[in-house]
From TrEMBL, chain A:
SUPFAM superfamilies: MetI-like. Residues 104-294 form the ABC transmembrane type-1 domain. It is a multi-pass membrane protein. The lineage of its organism: Bacteria, Pseudomonadati, Pseudomonadota, Alphaproteobacteria, Hyphomicrobiales. PANTHER family: D,D-DIPEPTIDE TRANSPORT SYSTEM PERMEASE PROTEIN DDPC-RELATED, OLIGOPEPTIDE TRANSPORT SYSTEM PERMEASE PROTEIN APPC. Keywords: Cell membrane, Membrane, Peptide transport, Protein transport, Transmembrane, Transmembrane helix, Transport. The chain crosses the membrane at residues 39-62, 106-132, 144-161, 234-252, 272-294. This is ABC transporter permease.
From TrEMBL, chain B:
It comes from Methylobacterium terricola. It holds the Pfam family ABC_tran. Keywords: ATP-binding, Nucleotide-binding, Transport. SMART domains: AAA. It comes from the Bacteria. Its main location: membrane. This is ABC transporter ATP-binding protein.
Length: 308, 263
């Protein structure tokens, strides 16, 4: 549909990637610089990277990969930490470190699905609630959100799991269903302020339709707080899933899921303390890592809200 | 392209009213304004801060819905035009906002900002779009390499040039300039005004030029309209109005700015 008077692009060489994205590269350099200066951010990043590596390559990194499949070695039951078994063994004689390493993948998947589904539901609802001019629609979405927020998420998830029946899939579904309201709040508030920006009106003056504006102007400007919250929530979701596993509503014991492992380990306290120490430490470090990372990201991406 | 003398104004508005309800109080930001702009004409709108100039600009472009009154563009009543028809009409009428610092999305490059009108209106894409963006940057005397930059790397004057390029992208016939230089340094103001003057001659544009700088109005406008508290208190040809203002309000406005020699 181009008018005929448009000359074809002049025969200049197209600028290289580095030239075209010089501004972006500069921006990322600045982010990296700010991030590197903070010890806690770097610690968070290191922990998150560590767990991501364990999740990706766990079966190859674990010293006794066979032990996660439920091998029974009665001669090695409940051995204390030693060089061969740095975190000891469980009541089946399985190496605890191996089980925890292999369990990383399950825990991170659970966290990813829960936060992903939560954000996937919450962000669109939040954008709609923030952008719509219909008081009714906004009111409906926000009231529903308030309703969910009024009940503690874990308690609601417990009720849902109780209704659906225990199991890891139901546990994930229940937590995902209670995880979205935080995103609605966050995104609706941000959208309400971004939509008053002049560039949104400029876009409308150019003839942009609402979906275009939401995608190109509103969402990109909401992204920083969303990313920060996603990181924080990853840790919390892992913890929540482990909690459900611990009380026997999530993953079932033969699975190397951290919460389920601790739930079995409970009956071996305190004489066989190392049994619960290893999965407990893994949960603690995951939550710590994602929280520190989120905090660090907030400091560079969204410094204005740092005090909240 | 000679515009034969035609009786129909390019833009006209009658009895425009905009009432804002803020904090339980009704503010009549625009209160019964009539205006008419012939093709190729530059109408200046002056008035103190809060006199309703920006609101008037938004009303004639239908960015704000009027509380009362009618707007016609090119002989066609557009007061009740629906979303899709209005969207198409926006190719012909564009705006440059008062504050270039907030009129550009900080997360989008200059190139994306200038290309946006062309993309949302489905006018150009691919290589044709790139060529057109380059040409628009040329028109406002910005280096082509700026298309890869983000707004925060630009000065105020450069940002305003980007906004002008964006407003020109669809080759509109009518441009609203809402105090395009008031957020800029004095030295930069003159450059922007030169760009606007040149573009007007080259593209035979019609401007609604809002300003509270009377020297600037005198330099650029054919006719001028003086607003106060949402009403037009006086209007007429620039030379006549500046030489012999009829209203006391206009005189105070005139006296409150340093006089510049006519260029
Ligand atoms: N969205 C709005 N809601 C409520 N009141 C508004 C709104 N927009 C403008 N007003 C009010 O309308 C009046 C006119 O505002 P407007 O922005 O049109 O003035 P202006 O002449 O452009 O001023 P300036 O020279 O400072 O830009 C002001 O009293 C302002 O407070
Ligand atoms: Mg204004």
């Amino acid at each position: 549909m181009a008018p005929p008077d448009l000359a074809p692009a002049l025969a200049e060489a197209p600028p290289s990637f580095r030239v075209r994205h010089a501004s972006t590269i500069r921006q990322w350099r600045l982010y990296a610089h700010l991030f590197r200066r903070s010890f806690s951010s770097m610690l968070g990043l290191a922990l998150v990277v560590l767990f991501l590596v364990l999740a990706a390559f766990g079966p190859w990194l674990a010293p006794y990969p066979g032990d996660t499949a439920g091998a029974v070695k009665l001669s090695q039951r409940l051995l204390p930490p030693s060089l061969a078994h740095p975190f000891g063994t469980d009541e089946m004689g399985a190496d605890l470190l191996s089980r925890v390493i292999v369990g990383t993948r399950i825990s991170l998947w659970i966290g990813l699905i829960i936060t992903g589904v939560g954000a996937g539901i919450g962000v669109p609802l939040g954008i709609v609630a923030g952008y719509t001019r219909s008081r009714l629609l906004r009111g409906a979405i926000m009231r529903l959100t308030d309703l969910f927020l009024a009940v503690p998420g874990l308690a609601l998830a417990l009720a849902i799991v109780a209704a659906l029946g225990p199991g890891i899939a139901n546990c994930i579904a229940a937590l995902a269903l209670v995880w979205w309201p935080g995103y609605v709040r966050l995104v609706a508030a941000k959208t309400l302020s971004v939509k008053e920006e002049l560039f949104v009106e400029a876009s409308r003056a150019a003839g942009a339709r609402t979906p275009w504006i939401l995608w190109h102007h509103i969402l990109p400007n909401c992204l920083s707080p969303i990313i920060v919250k996603l990181s924080m929530d990853m840790g919390l979701a892992v913890l929540a899933a482990a909690s459900l596993g611990f009380i026997g509503l999530g993953a079932k014991p033969p699975d190397p899921e951290w919460g389920a492992m601790i739930s079995v380990a409970r009956s071996y306290m305190p004489d066989w303390w190392w049994y619960s120490a290893c999965p407990g430490l893994a949960i603690f470090l995951t939550v710590l890592g994602f929280n520190l990372l989120g905090d660090g990201l907030r400091d560079i991406l969204d410094p204005k809200s740092a005090g909240r | 392209m000679p515009t034969s003398p035609e009786p129909i104004p390019l833009l006209s508005a009658t009895g425009l009213v905009k009432v804002f309800h803020a904090g339980g109080r009704a503010v009549r930001a625009v209160d019964g304004v009539d205006l008419s702009l012939a093709a190729g004409e530059v109408l200046g709108v002056v008035g103190e801060s809060g006199s309703g100039k920006s609101t008037l600009a938004r009303l004639v472009l239908r960015l704000t819905e009027p509380s009362a009154g009618r707007i016609a563009f090119d002989g066609r009543d557009i007061t009740a035009l629906d979303g899709e028809a209005m969207r198409r009409l926006r190719r012909d009428m564009q705006i440059v906002f008062q504050n270039p610092h907030s009129a550009l999305n900080g997360r989008r490059t200059v190139g994306e900002a200038v290309a946006e009108p062309l993309r949302v209106q489905g006018v150009a894409r691919g290589a044709a779009l790139d060529a057109r963006v380059d040409r628009l940057l040329d028109q406002v005397s910005l280096p082509r390499a700026f298309r890869h930059r983000y707004p925060h790397e630009l000065s105020g004057g450069q940002k305003q040039r980007v906004c002008i390029a964006r407003a020109l992208a669809l080759e509109p016939r009518f441009l609203v300039l809402d105090e395009p230089t008031s957020a800029l340094d004095v030295s930069v103001q003159a450059q922007i005004l030169d760009v606007l003057g040149e573009l007007r001659r080259e593209l035979s544009l019609t401007y609604l030029f809002i300003s509270h700088n009377l020297a600037v109005v005198r330099y650029l406008c054919d006719r001028v309209m003086v607003m106060r508290e949402g009403r037009v208190v006086e209007q007429g040809p620039v030379a006549a109005l500046f030489a012999a203002p009829a209203e006391a309000y206009t005189r105070t406005l005139l006296d409150s700015v340093p006089r510049l020699p006519r260029p």
